[in-house]
Each structure stands twice: as structure tokens, then as C-alpha cells.
Amino acid sequence: MPEHAYESVGDGNIGVEAEVIPPRSADNDSVGYETSIPIHPQILAPLSYLLGLLSGIVIVILEKRNTYVRLHAWQSIILSLLVTLGSLLLFWIPPVAGFIHLAGFFAAVLCMFRAWKDTDTLTFFKLGPIGDFAERQVLGSTVLPF
């Protein structure tokens, strides 16, 4: 796996330089980020948040080349698991469980927007410890078998 350089951009976000592979042909409008799935990273990264756990797992399993997309897919998986776990533990307090779902929805929408917006610079928008764990899964020592 290629070495990654980190650049602090304040408020908990870091810049992650993914492996840049030039486009195959001059008529290709790709920004140069090759993926295993034939979808541009600007679509694939936000897509990992669309169906939460399901889309995150599918993208982690199918995408092997693009670090940026894998980071967002792992963050989507972890966010979905935490929202589900929190609402299951607090289901007996309906307003709290509803608030957890609402906060998870808005966090996913924010992450979708940032994944789409930051594709050109490959800045990984981290949701605090969730983003740190996702980063360890992709760039560090892999704890889970994906």
C-alpha cells in the first residue's frame, strides 16, 4: 500500500492523498482516481452513505483500490452501527431514540455532501472518533476482515 501524507486542516479533518493513477485515455473526464468499481469517486464516496450499513458494506467489499472511497465507506458503516446500537439501547425513551435517528440522518447527509465536495482535494471529513476508527481500518492495522 502506498505511503500517505497527512495535512492538518483544522477542526478534526485531515487531507488524505490517495494513489493517483492517470486516466487511460485523453477523452476520459476522470480526475485520475482509479476505482475497482466503474463509478467515479465523486459519486461512489457519497453513495456509501445512501443506504447506511448496506451500501457501506457493499462498497468496502467491492472497492479495493481507492483509499478515499474506502474511508467514507468505513465511516458510513461505523456511523450506521452506532445509530442502530444507540436507538436499540434507548428505545424505551422515544424522544431520545428519535433524536439519535435524526442526528444520524443529518450526520450522514453532511458526510455525503462533504464526500462529494472534497473529492477533488481528497480531504477526508472525519466525524471525530468514528473517522479515526475508519482511518485505522483503511490505512492502519486492520482489525476487521475486510
Automatic annotation (TrEMBL):
Q: Which domain of life is it from?
A: Eukaryota
Localization (cell): Membrane
Q: Which residues cross the membrane?
A: 43-62, 74-93, 99-116
Q: Which UniProt keywords apply?
A: Membrane, Transmembrane, Transmembrane helix
Topology with respect to the bilayer: Multi-pass membrane protein
Q: Where is the signal peptide?
A: none
Q: What is its main location?
A: membrane
Question: What GO cellular component term, any one, is given?
Answer: membrane
UniProt name for this protein? Uncharacterized protein
- Tell me what organism the protein belongs to: Linderina pennispora
